[in-house]
Amino acid sequence: MFADLKYLKQHPFQLVSMIAIALIPLIYSAVFIGSMWNPYNETGSLTVDIVNKDDGAKINGEHINIGNKLEDKLKKNDKFNWQFHKDSKAAKQNIDKGKSFAYIEIPANTSKKASTLLDEQPEKANITVKTNPGYNYIGANIGGQSATGIQQKLSDEIRSTYTKEVFSNMKKLIAGNEQTIQALDDMNNAEQQLIDGNQQVQAGLEQLKPLNPNAVGQIAQGNTQVTDGLASLQENNEKLNNNLKANMQQSSDTHFEEKNAEYVADPINMKQQDVTEVENYGQSFAPYIIAVSLFVGAITFSAVYPVGKNMLTRNSVVQSFISKFLLFLIQSIVTSAILTLFLVFVFQIEIDDIVRFTFLIVLWGLASMFLVTTLTTLLGNVGKFLALMLLILQLGSSEGTFPIETSNGFFQFLNPILPMTYVIKGIRESIFGFTGAIPYHDAVIYLIILIVVSLIVLFFSWMMKYKFPKTQTLD
């Protein structure tokens, strides 16, 4: 019953091999998760070349250089390793040789084109962006994001400059209107004084009219016309004054301060709320690597240990099966335990439900072990090949990295069929504390069925080996 365990005791080198194999999932996970633990927080070492050729331009009488303003802002930004150039030769060589991840050129006419914003035919400023995806595709994508950020900053700078200028002019206009209203009030007072004076003159002329009726009458008539003209002018001035005051009253609650200009230039605050909390890229990538590493460990075990060899000196199907079962069980549990302890205490991955997490890892370790060893026991080297092919298919169909919707139809078809899909989603749920489209209990049920079926096939494969002894040499 313990023949395989006794075999390991009698062969120390084989025992050392089993211990080394138990460490393979740990090593696999440590290398992959560790190498991509938090790449998006390490972009400060990625070089992005900025070639600023902007000559500047006059905008509303003020010389402005948008390229220089952008450069000043980027110097305070540590998201990337910004390198600034006036000449494009060195920067182009850097992007061609893979020394930088993005080349961004701000043309000489950037500010000049920006100055046409309020012209009849405004011109857009153009920036040139180059990346080298052939050298490093992910790096080029990240470099491209820096270019998008620069485009946004340039747009913000142009928008902010013009908004502040327009608001400044509006303030001047309001101040001018207030002065006009005051001037019209003064004119109204002066006109009223003239009208009052003319009326006094008119009264005096009436007294003088008996002395020289014709001359005085003509003067009095002219004076009356002047008085009427002044009254008409006063009336028109009052209308204009009232209209200006009404417009000023309507705009009294409208403010054109610098803070208002800043708000118009950037009016939206986006508040992003995540359903789950992910500390870093490594934590989000861990479920995929964990699932793959345990399957790789099972394949390695089957490749190194003679799983199809009968270690008993006498023929007994049940005892042979139990002997193999105990070895596979111990090897799998030890492997899963080592991996779990490493993830929790060395990598210190935050896990929402450690019990469910550990249980699913152990269950997947058992399912991988029994599935691979069953294939190997039943089909020998062909079984090992099939296990390897199964791993490869699951790498593409388990939705470990990109959403399955981005894969082709073949992998989308395999996605709900193969076990690693359920395992990855179950581990994600236990780490991040949510219930997905494939619930945790679905993964548990799938793996239990897989384990039971594998054990049944394993038992019958040993029955075949006793019935056909030559099959014991297949592996």
UniProtKB/TrEMBL annotation:
Coiled coil: 223-250
UniProt keyword terms in alphabetical order: Coiled coil, Membrane, Transmembrane, Transmembrane helix
Record's subcellular location: Membrane
Signal peptide: none
Gene3D superfamilies in the record: abc type-2 transporter like domain
Membrane spanning residue stretches: 12-37, 285-305, 325-348, 354-378, 443-462
Membrane topology: Multi-pass membrane protein
NCBIfam families named among the record's database cross-references: pip_yhgE_Cterm, pip_yhgE_Nterm
PANTHER family, per the entry: PHAGE INFECTION PROTEIN, TRANSPORT PERMEASE YVFS-RELATED
Annotated protein name in UniProt: Phage infection protein
Organism whose genome encodes this protein: Staphylococcus arlettae
